[in-house]
TrEMBL record:
Top-level lineage group: Bacteria
Organism from which the protein derives: Leucobacter chromiireducens subsp. chromiireducens
InterPro entries, sorted: MmgE/PrpD_sf (IPR036148), MmgE/PrpD_sf_1 (IPR042183), MmgE/PrpD_sf_2 (IPR042188), MmgE_PrpD (IPR005656), MmgE_PrpD_C (IPR045337), MmgE_PrpD_N (IPR045336)
Descriptive protein name: MmgE/PrpD family protein
Domain MmgE/PrpD N-terminal as annotated: residue spans: 20-271
PANTHER family attached to this UniProt entry: 2-METHYLCITRATE DEHYDRATASE, 2-METHYLCITRATE DEHYDRATASE-RELATED
Residue intervals of the MmgE/PrpD C-terminal domain: 294-482
Classification via SUPFAM superfamilies: 2-methylcitrate dehydratase PrpD (SSF103378)
One Pfam family of this chain: MmgE_PrpD_C
Similarity annotation: Belongs to the PrpD family.
Length: 512
């Protein structure tokens, strides 16, 4: 059973006991000792595999190189055994271990860089797999076992997704990681078995430190896009540390007269209803999230699948000389955030950054229509983006908001919720072709839903260029025994790159 918690702004003179505050309600869910369902445990394993896959593919990319160098500049803190950094072995006198907040930072960047892991979209959007790096880092540092790790991750997903269902951030230009700071703090609280009062303080601090603007996803998108969730995870680790030391946080952080809702979100007259599991109710939100088959913004997933279908059925569409215009009728979000409705000239710029092209549905649809597929590296190269026939086709693609697709995007019925739309292609011959797609092929309701087999295949595909075959098998064997793992085995839940893949000496120098 789910309980809906009403949330509003309270004037300073109005009493709001801390037990009635949203941060406390979140903490009660986190502290609930309810067991994790077998189905949820299996999906937690899938998402750890998924995160490792996309992290492996990112090990030699610039943001990861920089974040890893920062992390390795910080020794293991005295309160635990330290945490591993993706790509590096924890050998040689633990030279490659770091303090958990810095492991959360480096690994969070690796997971997010390619925009290729899981997603959940409702009132807000999110990548709930971003909870895994900070919770795993703390588990390794504190010698937690696999069962505790599963419990912590289930909480992280539950809290972030429940906040995402109820509270929209993006319409106020607040970045979606503002829901991640509280959820990761709650997940760490579950992992460590902390009491409600301590978790509530950490949740409040996790929110207070992670409310940033969405400029990181606007215009010329920078490398900070990959760092933003890693920063939220790092702040969550530090928030838990402060709370465990008895330090308090702004209160009430959501409902206060000068709090987040009053000044950053819907304002002093705001009303939200946040759904949270009742006491004793299993945390099953992870089962409603979905991963990506393609390395692109989630709203692009279904469009890539539709484009490759059209590529097979109408190869003539690949030639811009045949096409007069292409209009993608879609949801408000797709049109205004990654479509022509954003009014970002960079979305049609062949010299734009990878991060910007990833947030341009006109570019993505044009390339997928020409290539009949999508590749996490090749589809974004300057050479691919600058190809003359691609640029010509790309600039014929626009988006338009369609009220019905917007309604389905926001539907709370998982059987109706949709992230695609209808394409109308007008050829210079006068012929018109119309087709549509509701959800991506890999979606639970799609043509080819992802199961363990597909997660493992994705991991193998992305890991094979950078991991030895024996390392791939070691990791897969270990992670699939997750609930049975002891603390020493949890510490091995990383991936180790082939010799020569990572050049630590060649990393950029900074302050640390």
């Amino acid at each position: 059973m789910t309980v809906s918690h009403p949330v509003r702004v309270y004037r300073s003179e109005e009493p709001l006991p801390r037990e009635e505050q949203l941060a406390w309600k979140i903490a009660e869910v986190a502290a609930d000792p309810v067991e994790v369902d077998a189905e949820v445990t299996d999906m937690v394993i899938n998402r750890i595999i998924d995160n490792a896959a996309v992290a492996a593919a990112s090990l030699t990319r610039g943001p990861i190189i920089a974040a890893r160098a920062q992390a390795l500049s910080h020794p293991v803190s005295t309160g635990g055994a330290g945490a591993t950094v993706f790509g590096l072995a924890s050998e040689e006198g633990d030279a490659h271990l770091t303090s958990p907040e810095w492991a959360a930072w480096a690994n969070g960047v690796a997971v997010r860089e390619l925009d290729y892991h899981d997603t959940f979209l409702a009132a807000e959007y999110s990548h709930p797999g971003d909870n895994i790096p900070p919770i795993l880092a703390v588990a390794q540092h504190t010698a937690a076992d696999g069962r505790s790790l599963v419990r912590g991750i289930a909480t992280g997903y539950e809290i972030q997704m429940d906040l995402v269902r109820a509270i929209c951030l993006h319409k106020h230009k607040i970045d979606h990681v503002a829901h991640l700071g509280p959820s990761a703090a709650a997940g760490i609280g579950t992992l460590l078995g902390l009491d409600v009062a301590t978790i509530a303080q950490a949740v409040a601090q996790g929110l207070h430190t992670t409310t940033a603007t969405r400029q990181s996803r606007k215009g010329e998108i920078s490398t900070w896009k990959a760092h933003a969730p890693a920063f939220a995870g790092k702040m969550a680790v530090e928030a838990v540390d402060r709370a465990m030391r008895g330090q308090t946080s702004p209160s009430p952080i959501y409902e206060g007269e000068d709090g987040v809702i009053a000044w950053l979100l819907d304002g002093p007259d705001a009303r939200y209803d946040v759904p949270l599991p009742a006491a004793g109710e299993p945390k099953r939100a992870i089962l409603e999230s979905y991963t990506k088959e393609h390395s692109a913004e989630y709203q692009a997933q279904a469009w890539i699948d539709l484009a490759r279908k059209l590529h097979r059925e109408h190869p003539e569409f690949a030639d811009p000389e045949n096409v007069a215009r292409i209009v993608l009728h879609t949801s408000h979000h797709t049109h205004f955030v990654i479509g022509s409705g954003a009014n970002d000239p960079q979305k049609y710029d062949p010299t734009a950054s990878r991060e910007t092209l990833d947030h341009s549905i006109p570019y993505i649809f044009a390339v997928a229509l020409q290539d009949g597929g999508w590749h996490h590296v090749d589809s974004y190269t300057p050479e691919r983006a600058g190809r003359a026939d691609t640029v010509a086709l790309w600039r014929k693609v626009t988006t338009a908001e369609d009220a019905e697709w917007t309604r389905r995007y926001h539907s709370e019925d998982p059987n109706e919720k949709a992230f695609g739309g209808r394409v109308e292609i007008e050829l210079n011959s006068g012929e018109r072709v119309i087709d549509e797609i509701a959800v991506a092929d890999a979606h639970p309701l799609g043509a080819r839903p992802f199961a363990r087999e597909q997660y493992i295949a994705k991991f193998r595909t992305l890991a094979e260029p950078v991991l030895e075959a024996a390392e791939i098998e070691r990791f897969l064997e270990l992670v699939q025994r997750l609930p049975e793992l002891n603390a020493a085995e949890v510490r091995e839940l990383g991936i180790v790159a082939k010799p020569g893949t990572i050049d630590l000496a060649g990393a950029p120098k900074g302050l640390f």
